[in-house]
What does this fold into?
Amino acid sequence: MEMGPLQHVYQRPGPFVTAYLDTSGDAEDAAKAIELRWRAVREGLQEQGADDADLTAIEEHVREHRAQTGQRGQVLVAEGGEVVLQDELPAPPTDLPAEEQAYVGPLPHLMPYLRRCMTKVPFLIADVEHTGADLTLVRGPGETDEIRVDGEQHPVHKTRSGDEENHQRFHMAVEERWKRNAEATAGEITERARKIGAQAVVLTGEDQQRSLVHALLGDAQDLVVEPQSRQVSREELRQEITRAVHAAQISEVVEEFRREAGRGGRAVEGWQDTVEALRRGQVRTLLWTTDDDHAGDLHIGAGPMELAADERSIKETGGEIIGDVPASAAVVRALAGADAGLVITDPDAVDLTGGIGAVLRYRAA
It folds into this structure.
């Protein structure tokens, strides 16, 4: 997951108010239930000295939220009387301790959000036929759009009537229409996949037309995956694709980390070396295997790369300490500032000192 899109959040001076809210819509009076949950979170924020303008901004978003059925949640971050980040969570944040559901500090507390975002893999399903295709755009749990791609309708079926010459001419006309419809479908798939940032494309439907579309996808061919079974629900397919994409991403980064670490190359692990690499802007992808989203505190300065366990490291470079924050909050800001990536996995995938490591852009001199 690339952290660059979060840069706009960290361009704000702070302090920040971070709220994780259960917005599940299964209760009989869902709107009232959500309001009551927000009151509890708001009380926790007020106890930490949250600015009234920030609380009002979040409350307006909560009131405007349209309850939907199913188990879900939201993360909301406010600063300077504005909501600067709002996103859906794939499940209620009820597993978070109360102090993490409501957090006020110099930086937003985003690691719980990012951990949950790992289950949001956007992908596209194309049910292909000779006359077009039905596209399903899946952004995450419960977030889908249906789009119909209509191609030329007649003739699209071959027949055996007529003399041999007319028969061949008719078949060629049909195959040309198949190809033109495949081109239209492939173009729409490519464009829609780009717009939603799809990490996978699943092709179903008529075998021959599916092969034509696949051949015309261009760069999007690399996204095509084959599900284990086509006889599953959309939610089961979403979960399967999510697991497959995550496994591939984690495997790729872990393999590179091990290769570089084994030859003393572009890899570091442990808090001291990884934080130093973050300070230098060396980190390309950070590996995080700890379940502890606090993992102690770090000192921070005003700049995104100003983080350290030792105050002197910041002061010696002319910076000023603006506060102490959970280590994960400082790390995420540094990753966003460096436009670096983050991979969250469990310790079984890779054994890292302190639960943290990184693949670097370059070796330190």
